[in-house]
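Practice problem: predict the structure.
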Amino acid sequence: MDEEISRFMLLAARLEFFLVNLTHEFAHVDSETRVVRGVNWDQVGQSLEGIRPFEDFDFSKSGFQIFKDTIPQRLVAKNGGGLKWDSDEIKVSSWQVLLGRSYAQVRNNVAHGNKAQLSAPFTHDRTKDLLEAGHHLIHFIAGEYSSDESWSNAIQFS
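Answer:
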C-alpha cells in the first residue's frame, strides 16, 4: 500500500503544480498574505463544467465514479478524546463538489496520514479503490487542460 500511496501523492502533486502554473485562477491564494495555499477546486470545477458539463458526463466509463457515488470519510477528534471516522451526507451534483469534497478529501486523508492513523474495516478495500480512482481523475483533469503528457514531467524549480 505504501507504493500505491507514494505514486498517488506524486501524481497529485504534479497535477496541483501544473494547475496553479496553468492559471493563477486555479490557485487558492490567502487573501491577506497572497501565499498560494493549494488548488482552488471550486475554480477548477467551474472551468471543467464549461468543458464537460457534469450533468452530461458518463461517469460509468470514467474510472472515477466512486467520487460521484461516495463522499470519503474524514478523521475527526471526538470531544472526550480519541479519533473516529465521520462523513457528510452530501450529494455530489457538480464538479466543484466532486473535486472539492470527494477528491480533495481522499488526497488530504492520504497526505496527512489519516488512512494509517485509525484503521476501520470499511477503509481497507476502499482505500485502494479510491487511490485508483484518483489516478483516473487526475489524468482526466490534466487531459482536459494539456494536449500531451508534459504536465506529469518531473517538477523543476529554476
